[in-house]
Amino acid sequence: MEVDTNLSPDDIIFYSVLYSSVTVVFGMAVLSKFLTNEFRFGFRSVLSLVVLFLGEPLCQFLVKGPWGLTCFAVGCLFIYSILPASHLPVGNKAVLITGCDSGFGHALVKKLDSIGMRVFAGCLVKDGPGAIELKNKCSERVTFLQLDLTNNKEVELAVEYIQQQVSTEGLWGLVNNAGVWYCSELEMTSEKLMRRVMDVNLFGAVRITKACLPMIRASKGRIINVSSLLGRVTLEGNGAYCMSKHALVAYTDTLRQEMRKWGVQVALIEPTGFYTGNMQEHVIKSRKEEVWDTLDDATKDTYGREYLDHICSHIIDGTPRFSRDLTPVIRCMRSSLLSKRPRERYPCGAGAELLITTYPLLPVWLADRLMGAISLIPRNIKPAGLQS
After folding, report:
1. What is the pTM assigned to this prediction?
2. Active-site amino acid positions
């Protein structure tokens, strides 16, 4: 069949409008998938850009006419069809979230409830202000559980209750969000506090995951572990926290490999730069006192109370820089739970993906300089032992 390539000026304008319409629709559809974290930059996303920026002019000026437009539209449809599928239906899916008193867990409860999911909200203080706020704002689909992850009895009771509620359907998702953070140098952090951080951030997640796995296997569901940028990089003054999050990353990666044969998918959320419960002024001050009270006299003399106070004040003064908008993290959490093809890792926050990608490639001296530039430890004060 011979293609008429002689187009009038009016035809050229007409087809240009049609090409532009197809381009806008395809571009918006691809952008929507990217913004909802259904896919990241890779082969398929590059292919989408090739179709947009090379496919259109080739079809419009080489093939021309209706056949060119048809080829371009079919190409867009094909590329879109191989992009990751949309989210799964909510149905009667049930999710357990730990650490719902504040921060990411608190916000995720609201989000999942708003889209119709059944939520078991584990709170450190079941009748605390965070839980009360959620009770006032959420529907009856949300069940509140007393859940201190360091308390074996509370973990056991919570899991037994969930088993009774989900019956044979199983538990679709577990979001290990609970975490604790102390800002102090490693020598200033007692073994007692290090153990507490590890018990909550690592072993708490391990404990509740092992207890919930039979229910999650039954539904071929999801395990979502909330780590941090500090699970991939190190930052002075955050030693215990970095240790726990690096270990959680290793645990998550291994668990993902081992659960694949069961049809269970495991994902890691890696936020950075957000204001959560750990960053509240009264929490920072309270944990500063814990740090000081658990130090031996020799270490107190070496560093001095003024040094610790100055670190605390420096952190509090810097909290306005942390984003109060938790939407990027909540979007990643939702996608990890409901996307048909969830990603293994979800870096979220300003510069998170760039820093996580480039940090391992840097020479050690340069990586140390980079992290020193964003350190929480002020440079204008020295420990007592270094003062003349």
Report:
1. 0.80
2. 241
